[in-house]
């Protein structure tokens, strides 16, 4: 498989010319190109303008205090102090209620745009944050790392308009889910800093220096250390910075976003969607969920941050007529121990619910609730839904990519999205 | 990657007063037989060769054209880290490093790079003498650093000022390996100011930092004992709230997974039993105290040892566990030499650990004097971390600022001191390629622009922090060649392949129209536009080579 893309330096910045790229196709990523050639399978078409936003809740979110089984007597029995009683939760039905600070998500539920999948996990969890994060992001159940599932997806997406922003990661380090052997995902801490500043003494606004810089990168020997990484990094930066700033100059959010890096990040993603930068996959992380001790205050604050950020994002998209084009899913590396510990917190657990939201979503509760009376030997929930079936659903039914190709297997589907 | 919302943790402050105020009298732990058999050799997984880019370089219609998207072909299932490592493993340099190059390499890895004077000083000592000077840091006075810091009146209760204080330490110290080793430990035995008991207790991070500095080359046993009892760590991993009848698993798990053994060498039962054994610690302001009456006195079985175990037993068992020297040697080797070391690479470090009674200074000496450390594979074999990049430029260019703005810059590059993304420290410490992406690359280049052309972050547009005319005068840089060679000698070891030196000279000497700023005059009387001169230095520090360590 060969991809070529030509671009020119114009006005000191890189302009990717349209029409010089392959037709919009999806392949399952370069890593499996050889396997693909062998079995001759068809490349899936992905000519649509749909976006998937993935929200990582890092640290292991306490699923039982997020989507609360408030009528199960075992719940409050095992969590006498930190448990959320019926009077506190926002009931979804006779069995489940949302954490009281998820009011904004409850509104999305009421208008039909929120789905919950219960019992999501995988077998033989080690209770290690880092192995669990590896597994969720690379699907290597041995936790050996490798290409991320979204990286594999994005690497195979070719945009006929040459958009550099088919995927964006918010932050300072590209998430493992977005790591790919052939594509650099633009990683943006904030719009302001996503540019190269010229020397004020340069009368040409920095053009000559930038050109000389690119020459230095061009002539860096291909066999020298990190050559490919340095090249793709410079290219990704050059590609994107001007387009982002042009988009930024004319973007007006329709709502006031809450303060803080999480909502700030969502705002950048909304901007990329609203301004037509070709965003197919957006990724943002909210951290701090490792609540071993005195968890209530921390978890309360995180729930509010999550819900208010996602709600503002949704409303912004809706006001710009983009809400039909975006699906948001959350994930966390594990849930937490059913029984509270002696420090008013919870230790590492296993299965947990996750959220899928957006106009395209079929409201409802999916999956199967794990039993609180039938725990594993460590006092953790037994998972009922393989996390890969969630990925398969969003890939097949939303992005329009072949989940079999991206995930390397068939993992079924959940009905929170209609069949394609 | 990790966006952490600021949460004021004051409400959680000091939740654990001991139940009885009785003097702590610690019983001596019963001696235990400790296994010292070596681990079975782990086999390094085979890397899959990858072809790399076809890239750039043609000219179309007078414009540089960039063909992009270098596509590496590979069979499926390549572990990303191996793939990234592979990208970094090819090297132009074969055979032993030249003496200047080797000293430059040593000072970058065992420090933060060097200015021309330092480079000359260490070069005169020879490589072994340089290693001695770095390790025997007590013999090198560092009063100038302490006085300079004192003069800045930095408020160590503030998170940003703590970062600034440490960054300036690294930039100005005459004991670079001591600071580098402290940075290494901070990435392994890590804590974050975000969870040490609220703003009033931020100073606990400095206490931890000073502990790691004071014991940087101590035995691993002492380091582990100290960090277990460290107030910031007690709070960060919740040992201070662990109750003898309901132990908190957090510290017990990470102590094994991330500090000593690694995944696969313990069970969930060991986590639970270890947690019980570790109970009894409480924070007392900026210190801590062990209360035997709050320790779980039941019989526990931990990693095959049974008894009424306490924290000293736990540390003793871990420091003597056969997996530990491999685990910590792999961390050291990866951080200081190169990634994915082989069993053969690590064996001398493991042997030194065992033979020296777990002395980390001796392990470091073995590492620095190993042929692997000075190998072509190690040379430019890691991407500079944000701290290495930021401090390195500050140090090499002798910048005499107050460090204002530096913490924000390292944060944008992906590293905030005293605030790792999580308890595993910085992923880039393990896989240095993770430091580099489009956003952090531009931040690196903008930082260089800031130093050379703009002034501090806080005062954009003010006087640049580097006075190039003075440097030209002091070093008598009489021509564009001398200018490029001077800076290349200590920034790039003078290692600029191909026509890359010529490219820099071209940039220096190419006539530009419409000149801003006061030109730089060389000793020969010839003047060059300001933008051309400092642009040349910018290009050197923005170059691919300068991103590498």
Question: Can you give keywords for this protein?
Answer:
heterodimer, A: 420 residues, alpha/beta, Alkaline Phosphatase, subunit A, three-stranded antiparallel beta sheet, globular, disordered N terminus, B: 549 residues, mainly alpha, two-stranded antiparallel sheet, two-stranded antiparallel ribbon, 23 helices, 8 strands
What is the strand and helix layout of this fold?
The complex is a heterodimer of chains A (420) and B (549).
Chain A: E1 7-10, E2 13-16, H1 33-39, E3 51-58, E4 67-68, H2 73-78, E5 90-91, E6 97-98, H3 103-110, E7 114-121, H4 129-138, H5 149-156, E8 167-170, E9 187-188, H6 207-218, H7 227-249, H8 261-274, E10 281-287, H9 295-319, E11 326-331, E12 352-357, E13 364-367, E14 385-386, H10 387-399, H11 403-407
Parallel strand pairs in A: 3-10, 3-11, 7-13, 7-14, 8-9, 8-10
Antiparallel strand pairs in A: 1-2, 4-6, 5-6, 7-12, 11-12
Helix pairs in contact in A: 3-9, 8-9
Chain B: E1 59-60, E2 63-64, H1 80-89, H2 99-109, H3 116-135, H4 143-151, H5 159-172, H6 176-188, H7 203-214, H8 220-228, H9 231-236, H10 250-260, H11 268-277, E3 281-284, E4 287-290, E5 300-302, E6 305-307, H12 311-319, H13 323-336, H14 343-355, H15 360-369, H16 386-396, H17 406-413, H18 427-430, H19 438-454, H20 468-474, H21 480-491, H22 500-509, E7 520-521, E8 527-528, H23 530-542
Antiparallel strand pairs in B: 1-2, 3-4, 5-6, 7-8
Helix pairs in contact in B: 2-3, 3-15, 4-5, 5-16, 8-12, 10-11, 13-14, 13-15, 14-15, 16-19, 19-23, 21-23, 22-23
* Structural class by sheet pairing and helices of chain B: mainly alpha
**Number of distinct beta strands of chain B:** 8
Element string of chain A (H = helix, E = strand): EEHEEHEEHEHHEEHHHEHEEEEHH
Order of adjacent strands in the largest pleated sheet of chain B: 1-2
Largest beta-sheet characterization of chain B = 2 strands, antiparallel
Q: Give the N-terminus to C-terminus distance of chain A in angstroms.
A: 28 Å
Strand content of chain B: under 5%
Number of continuous helical runs of chain B: 23
Global mean pLDDT of chain B: 85
Distance between the termini of chain B: 23 Å
State the CATH architecture of chain A.
3-Layer(aba) Sandwich
CATH topology of chain A: Alkaline Phosphatase, subunit A
Compute the number of strand runs of chain A.
Answer: 14
Low-confidence stretches of chain B: 1-92, 457-461
What is the residue-averaged pLDDT of chain A? 86
Radius of gyration of chain B: 25 Å
The total number of structural domains of chain A is 1
- Bin the helical content of chain A: 25-40%
